């Protein structure tokens, strides 16, 4: 692996960590950046596997809280319902992700124009929902009703289209189902753990034959950068959205998607 590849892998890892938990589509950013930088990993595994760095960032930040939940689960119905709500929300992604994996990786991941368009459309949707979301009825991410969690899980599956954003889909879904802005972001954090860990494990299994030492070095660098930057973003995000909402990220999506679309139409 030469120096330029190392820098690109580090940059993409940084980009992954900065964008994974905000509703702007980390995968869309990675794929567009990789397109314009001429970077393409074997089986598009790099773009999926380095997300585990962001997962570990969430686990690090919420380790104490999660440990308390699992310890309380045998005798606390609220803790048990929270664990079940995350698993219920995760289930649709398991089924649809396995069935559609090859199509997603070989078709959707290879269509930069689609990614740019989805960034723009998602930006407008985020701006609208940030304004018209109903009055919050749920302000604790650990107490979402199971039917609500399942609906969020199905909405999350829209993010299998790169450019939609997993966190964006879950946050928009939660807001429209009556969540507060902070609780929507927190539930998205919790749901990301099994979803991204599952995607990591399945993608690594599917592409085990195309990974070599170079690919593993790229992944290790991207993984480390994703972990560090994700820790910083998660600690900042909840306070920001509680005060300012999601409009900033809607405009971010529109600008990035618009610039990418113009560049693609110009032949870059």
Describe the structure.
- There is one protein chain.
- This protein has one domain (3-265).
- Helix content is 77%, strand content 0%.
- It is built from eleven helices and no strands.
- It has helices spanning 3-19, 26-37, 45-49, 51-72, 77-106, 112-132, 146-156, 166-176, 181-206, 213-244, 247-265.
- Helix 6 (112-132) packs parallel to helix 8 (166-176) and helix 8 (166-176) packs antiparallel against helix 9.
- It is globular.
List keywords for this structure.
single chain, 268 residues, mainly alpha, 11 helices, 77% helix
Topology:
Elements lengths: L2 H17 L6 H12 L7 H5 L1 H22 L4 H30 L5 H21 L13 H11 L9 H11 L4 H26 L6 H32 L2 H19 L3
Helix pairs in contact: 1-2, 1-10, 2-6, 4-9, 4-10, 5-7, 5-9, 6-8, 6-11, 7-8, 8-9, 9-10
Distance between the termini: 25 Å
Overall spatial form:
globular
Q: What structural class do the secondary elements suggest?
A: mainly alpha
**Mean pLDDT metric:** 87
Helix and strand succession? HHHHHHHHHHH
Largest sheet: none
Q: Give the number of DSSP strands.
A: 0
Fraction of residues in helix = over 70%
Write down the Rg.
18 Å
Query: Beta-sheet strand percentage?
Result: under 5%
Discrete helix count: 11
Count of the domains: 1
Ranges with pLDDT <50 over ≥5 residues?
none
Subcellular location: Cell membrane
Pfam family, one: BacA
EC number: 3.6.1.27
Main location: membrane
Quick synopsis:
This protein is mainly alpha-helical. The protein has helices at 3-19, 26-37, 45-49, 51-72, 77-106, 112-132, 146-156, 166-176, 181-206, 213-244, 247-265. Helix 2 packs antiparallel against helix 6, helix 5 crosses helix 9 (181-206) and helix 7 (146-156) packs antiparallel against helix 8.
